[in-house]
Amino acid sequence: MKRSQSRMGHASECYELLEFLSRRQMPVVCSEPDDIHKILALRSASLLQAMTEPTVVLRTGERRIERAIVTAITAEGRAACMMRSANAQSAGRR
Predict the structure, then answer these.
(1) Res 47: pLDDT
(2) Are the C-beta atoms of residues 80 and 48 closer than 8 Å to each other?
């Protein structure tokens, strides 16, 4: 149960970032690790286009991507933003 709630929270955070990015002028450069993970998820869902720097392996063995550059929101990404916005508006009318 907690795992699915955690996924829903992560998905919601990803959509919030997508909506934020959709209002920005492209390209948008991001260096915050949490945001880069969300950008990777959104890119894998074909909701945006982004380039990333090569993965860096730290001394601890941790792998990190230092920077992501969002170059575009796809048509699917814009549709997802519109659908989320419409759902939020209809929920507010109740």
Answers:
(1) 98
(2) no
